[in-house]
Design a protein that fits this description.
This protein has one domain. It is 71% helix and 0% strand. The longest helix is centred in the first third of the chain and has 37 residues. The protein has 5 helices and no strands. It is mainly alpha-helical. The N and C termini lie far apart (63 Å). The chain is elongated, with a radius of gyration of 18 Å. The mean pLDDT is 87.
Length: 140
């Protein structure tokens, strides 16, 4: 394997780690918002956190509705091909196990329904647990 191919494989693994972190932010962001509401954690009402969370799942849901493949998936796949991979997602230890965690076999509409439903749950959390501006940003 050439140094360029090794570099591409390393970048592909990095993209995959970012992808997993993005997914974790979306999933655990909602879970922690509801837990934090019950436990009265102030940070779960942070406006910037909540807007970033809503935007993250909103982009995912919109991509699914319009049939757009996630750019992180495309970048990772292209980098693996540049690294000399012939089959999709053949690669490193990190790649193998993280793919087992985040990629599933199902019809496209199943994912679209799941993403849109999750988006609606995040919107519902905005209504039930409205975000607030920080105390520092408010004028007294």
């Amino acid at each position: 394997m050439t140094p360029f191919q090794k570099f591409c494989l390393l970048l592909a693994d990095l993209v995959l780690v970012v992808h997993v972190a993005f997914i974790a932010f979306v999933i655990f962001g909602l879970i922690l918002t509801w837990i934090g509401w019950v436990r009265r954690w102030g940070w779960v009402r942070n406006l910037w956190f909540r807007l970033a969370h809503l935007a993250a799942i909103g982009v995912v849901a919109a991509q699914a509705l319009f049939g757009i493949i996630c750019p992180l998936t495309l970048w990772e796949d292209e980098l693996r091909l540049l690294a000399g991979g012939e089959e999709r997602y053949a690669g490193s230890f990190i790649q193998h196990w993280l793919h087992q965690l985040i990629f599933f076999e199902a019809e496209g509409y199943v994912f679209t329904i799941a993403y849109v439903t999750f988006f609606l749950a995040v919107v519902l959390s905005f209504l039930v647990i409205p975000p607030r501006r920080s105390q520092h940003a408010q004028v007294t």
